[in-house]
């Protein structure tokens, strides 16, 4: 699978962006093509590529599976030009995703997908996800990994009460949550 984590599309702006950092009232992104950093406010509509999917006759296909199918078909090379004629775009998309819903997936959606793939391919951002395997060679899903829980030790304060390590015990002060 191709790793699309951290790659976003911003409504009203062409191209794809990588999330660099989070700021007080938005995020800082870097354009994949021009490498310019821009602040995106929290009110701007932003879509992560890993959250986008395409309609099929069965269940919706996530974008990472579709991009992986294009990557496998082209062996990491470029895909069809997004500016090709409609019939060529539809024929190519039918090879990549044969069970797509012909009534709900428009040619404009296909063009956008191919332009995104081209941007990721030309900027070397088509990275294969590393799959975690256990000792038997079975693939471990990220949800199945054992969670590491930090243990905190309780220490005796000498006054009969115990506190967590590193937390000061304050006498007579109660925090109510309002200022």
Task: Describe the fold and architecture.
- This protein has 179 residues and is α+β, with helices and mostly antiparallel strands.
- It has a domain at 7-122: Arc Repressor Mutant, subunit A.
- It is built from 3 helices and 11 strands.
- The chain has helices spanning 63-74, 86-96, 107-122; strands at residues 7-10, 17-23, 26-31, 37-41, 46-48, 53-54, 61-62, 132-133, 139-140, 154-156, 162-164.
- The protein has a 5-stranded antiparallel β-sheet with strand order 4-3-2-1-5, with no helix packed on it. A two-stranded antiparallel sheet has the order 6-7.
- Strand 8 and strand 9 form a beta hairpin.
- The protein is globular.
- The model is unreliable at 142-157 (pLDDT under 50).
**What's the overall average pLDDT, rounded?**
80
- By DSSP, the count of extended strands is 11
Weakly predicted, low-confidence segments:
142-157
In the CATH hierarchy, the third-tier topology of the domain at 7-122 is known as Arc Repressor Mutant, subunit A
The radius of gyration over CA amounts to 24 Å
**CATH class type of the domain at 7-122:** Mainly Alpha
Biggest sheet, strands in spatial order? 4-3-2-1-5
What structural category arises from helix and sheet content?
A: alpha+beta
Second CATH tier, the architecture of the domain at 7-122: Orthogonal Bundle
Characterize the overall form.
globular
Strand content: 15-25%
Biggest sheet, open or closed, and with what strands and sense?
5 strands, antiparallel
Distinct helical segment count: 3
Separation, N- and C-terminal Cα atoms = 49 Å
Helix content: 10-25%
Order of helices and strands: EEEEEEEHHHEEEE
């Amino acid at each position: 699978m191709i790793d699309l984590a951290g790659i976003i599309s911003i409504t009203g702006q062409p191209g794809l962006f990588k999330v660099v950092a989070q700021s007080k009232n938005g995020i800082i992104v870097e354009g994949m093509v021009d490498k310019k950093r821009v602040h995106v406010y929290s009110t701007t509509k932003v879509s992560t590529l890993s959250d986008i999917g395409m309609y099929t006759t069965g269940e919706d296909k996530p974008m990472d599976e579709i991009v992986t199918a294009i990557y496998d078909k082209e062996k990491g090379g470029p895909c069809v030009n997004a500016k090709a004629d409609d019939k060529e775009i539809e024929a190519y998309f039918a090879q990549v995703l044969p069970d797509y819903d012909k009534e709900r997936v428009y040619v404009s959606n296909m063009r956008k997908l191919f332009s995104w793939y081209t941007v990721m391919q030309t900027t070397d951002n088509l990275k294969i996800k590393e799959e975690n395997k256990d000792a038997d060679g079975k693939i471990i899903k990220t949800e199945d990994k054992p969670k590491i829980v930090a243990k905190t030790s309780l220490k005796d304060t000498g006054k009969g009460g115990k506190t967590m390590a590193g937390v000061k015990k304050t006498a007579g002060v109660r925090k109510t949550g309002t200022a």
